Amino acid sequence: MPREAPATRHTRRDGEAQRRPQRPSGDLPAGDGGNDAHRLAVGDFRVETVEVAHVVVVDEHVDELAQAAGVVEEAIAESGVSGLERRDDVAEPARLDLDGGGPARERTQGGGDAHGDGHELKSYRCGQESGRTSVGDVRIVVAPDKFRGTATAGEATAAIAAACRREGHDVVEIPMADGGEGTLDVLGGATTSSTITGPLGDPVECAWRLKDGLAVVETARACGLLLAGGAEHNDPVAASTFGVGEVLDHAIGRGARRIVVGVGGSATTDGGLGAISALGSPHRLRGITVEVGCDVTTRFVDAAEEFAPQKGASPAQVQWLRARLEQLVGRYREAYGADIAELRGAGAAGGLAGGLAVLGARLVPGFDIVADEVGLADAIGAADLVVTGEGHLDATSGHGKVVGGVREPCHEAGVPLAVVAGDVDRHAGPVDVAMPTVSLRERFGLDAAMTDTLDRLGEATGMLLAATRRRVSS
Questions:
Q1: What was the pLDDT predicted at 344?
Q2: Sheet arrangement for strand 362-365
Q3: Mean pLDDT across the stretch 304-316?
Q4: What is the pLDDT of residue 12?
Q5: What does the DSSP assignment read for 6-63?
Q6: pLDDT digits 0-9 by tens, 258-277
Q7: Which domains, ranges and CATH numbers included, belong to the chain?
Q8: Which of 65, 175, 301, 309 could bridge across to 186 with cysteines, CB 3.0–4.6 Å?
Q9: pLDDT of amino acid 47
């Protein structure tokens, strides 16, 4: 009796291969994906994956072989895995280990089969070649953003990765950021600090990074809203980016040749005027590559309406701030010959991005800067599954944020993506949740999501893995 290949399982009922039940609908399953004895598994993967190892069907009779092979073909088609390649020559070269545990059987001369009864073996391989042949060797890239106020990107990554490892998976941890708060940490963390002028004029200690000529500065640590005491204590008209310019000046003085400025979380809407003043000379950045990591595409003058209310500005102050930004457009054009009125992203950090742009800085999507530095695309290309996430998933998450940024290389590489979010806002606009998604708030309640975030992330990851298992086996 031929042995069944470990890469496929099927049960028999009245001499026929049993077909799998339809995939259940509704909420994501909280269990382990159901009873495998009642499904035909396309490979023995525990998560949805582009690579489905070898699915080998061996039988003693031609008609049963054809029937079983048809079921396998149907199962693969239903799984949504693309790139099906049918091979009728798997008995060559001469040795096959059909049960994964014993010596491989020699090819016989009985018509091209491996067990001498004249029947062929048929093998199906799907998707990309990764060089891994063990069905248990599933590589998962974990690449979430921070969960604001409850977990840093590094903490969230560790919690999700631990849950994956508990199920025996190979995990690559890549904490991510979109250029805003958390960028410094995911790019290696601070190596030094400077005493600078805070957003409201008080001295603050600003941590930043300098290594091998690359400096990383976060505006939240120089002119952040938290440094001003939050929106309720901020003075949105007086708040200044002067301290950002001081840090940039220190970085240049200490040998930085390239500077990454992560903008986000600022208390300011001064159009970068403070930072320019601190640098002193418009030529201070000459010969220095400055990249401003933006997570928005807001125009310069629109920064007032879009961001100032979050920083404590009243409606009257918003109008005053907009008028100041409109004046700065003209002043910058006259002084530096740079027109930033329509520059995408110039309104980031209350116009700080635009102010630095007039001195020659490049405005770059913050996610792209981080992804390039950490080698995200290469890691995803070698993965079977990617898990990402953020604290608040909404209609903007696909534009400049980590979830949308991670989705693009996953799509290009054909690697499945799953998302765990602190909350999913389905009211502010349509949320793209085509990928498996778990909301901590919806699943565990607001209190648990906010106070027990790391443990709940682990539980949610288990649900995602169960969901992706079910997607493969249904």
A1: 95
A2: 192-197, 203-211, 214-218, 258-262, 289-294, 362-365
A3: 97
A4: 34
A5: TTEE--EETTEEPPPPPPP-SSPPSSSSS-GGGS-EESS-SS--S----EEE--SSHH
A6: 999 999 899 999 999 999 99
A7: 8-44+52-125 (no CATH), 139-174+375-473 (3.40.50.10350), 183-368 (3.90.1510.10)
A8: 175
A9: 34
